[in-house]
Amino acid sequence: MSRVCQLTGKKANNGYSVSHSHRRTKKLQEANLQWKRIWWAEGNRWVRLRIATSAIKTLEKKGLQAMAKEIGLDLSKC
């Protein structure tokens, strides 16, 4: 499975690591993804998703059903 958040679509970003002498080397800035079991009340079961930590905070505010509906994610297949 690729390192992409299932709710927000966040993924890796290309950037530079800059040394003190300003020498640049390429680096990959990965999203902070976590496996999370979330209770889906409408489906009356647990759903296991790989989501970013920022998405966990948003999830507590909006709710799982609302976030899944925004992006068109079918929770019955997760």
Description:
This protein is α+β, with helices and mostly antiparallel strands and 78 residues long. It has one domain (13-71): Roll (Ribosomal Protein L24e, Chain: T). Helix content is 23%, strand content 36%. It has two helices and four strands; from the N terminus they run ββββαα. The protein has helices at 53-62, 64-71, and strands spanning 13-18, 24-29, 33-40, 45-52. Strands 1-2 form a two-stranded antiparallel sheet. β1 and β2 (24-29) form a beta hairpin. The protein is elongated, with a radius of gyration of 16 Å.
Beta strand % = 35-45%
Provide the gyration radius in Å.
Answer: 16 Å
Structural class: alpha+beta
Query: What does the overall shape look like?
Result: elongated
Second rung of CATH, namely the architecture: Roll
Counting H and I runs of at least 4 residues, what is the number of helices? 2
Count of domain modules: 1
What's the CATH class, please?
Mainly Beta
CATH topology: Ribosomal Protein L24e, Chain: T
How would you name the CATH homologous superfamily? Ribosomal protein L28/L24
Low-confidence stretches: none
Largest sheet: 2 strands, antiparallel
How many beta-strand runs? 4
Order of helices and strands: EEEEHH
Strand order of the largest sheet: 1-2
What is the mean predicted local confidence, pLDDT? 93
Terminal Cα span: 13 Å
Proportion of residues in helical segments: 10-25%
